[in-house]
Specification:
One of its GO terms (molecular function) is N-methyltransferase activity. InterPro entries: DNA_methylase_A-5, SAM-dependent_MTases_sf. Residues 229-277 form the DNA methylase adenine-specific domain. This is DNA methylase adenine-specific domain-containing protein. Residues 1-21, 335-368 are annotated as: Disordered. The protein is mainly α. It has one domain (20-162, 225-355). It is built from 15 helices and 7 strands. The strands form 3 sheets. Strands 3-4-7 form a 3-stranded parallel sheet. β5 and β6 form a beta hairpin. The longest helix has 29 residues, at 45-73. It is globular, with a radius of gyration of 23 Å. The two termini are 25 Å apart. The relative contact order is 0.15.
Amino acid sequence: MSRVQTNAPRGRAVPAQQNPPAVRASLATMERLLRTIEHRTYQRIDAVFDDWVDLLVLLLDHLPLHLADVVRTGHMAAWPEGTTPEQYATFARIQQRYGRFTEVAFQHFSQAAGTFFQATGTDWFDWLGALTMSLGLGGNRHGDYYTPWDVAQMMAQTQNISSLLHKRMLVALRHPENHRAPAVALTGLLFHPRADGQPTEPALDAAARDAFLLEYLIPTVLPFFEPVTVCDPACGSGVMLLAAASTVPHWARQLGMVQFYGMDLSHRAVQMSRAQLRAYGLNGYEARMFVALDEAGGWDAIRERLAQAAPVAPPPPLVAASPGFTVVPRQPQGHLAHPTLAQRAAAQAKPSLVFTQPQPTRNRRGTP
């Protein structure tokens, strides 16, 4: 599980995970910014961290809505159409907490968010889980330990999710109503190694194989494909889900062929998982972003519209979820360049994290 309850003796230090220098630098920057909020606003670090994660989720929820606003109205409002009462309430609660220090808090929240999104754009890692431990919000005192990233990766690799993915694709190709499958399968033989062990023809390089996958194989498979599901019933920061996603081909992640689900008793844990899964574009989120960008005409067209309309919020790539809260969003890449596939993946996107309330009738030992 991603969150582990422990009975380790108090005061015993947990060996620190040796992360690469770039990872340590990003974590140190985020910790410094959140600590600055703690010291300058006189709030507890756990409240500061929870508020920041809630704002990350709010921002990621709003990014596609902001782009839709640009298409519809030509400008980007601080609150896009489609904002829910719960989202308004979340922001109001955070504003009320910081009072006269709101501007200072949001300035540093914004910078920490920018660091987080830049970090998620470089490599796979459990940023929020590691940051939680660095801030002292886990460990012996709280009874929560977040699985180290290298351990999660090792466990994910033993599951061989890619093998199951390809088996499901083969089942879809063999579906009796999949009439295009025989022709596509025959064409696919061109990309297999020759019987004499020699490599494929030079013309059939990686680019050609990618084009075949995107234009023929995946569109043939998807109507009959049953998505592979990965579930963590104690998801914590989402580290096991992220590690599993890192072992899956990028086209399968982008197109929602592998779906990631989790649940947890901790509201903080669920919000951390939500933020990280969306930041990495899982469960159709990257497809939603691509469709929204495609309808808006891309970043260049968005900049032109915002320049002409005198926007009330900073223009892209600085997208605002609220006044003073800006980040550089992750831009969709790769196989989502196919609009039809992207629209299909976006339409099938669904909520993936569940907050499970503890049973109030049970005491701490779990007996009625």
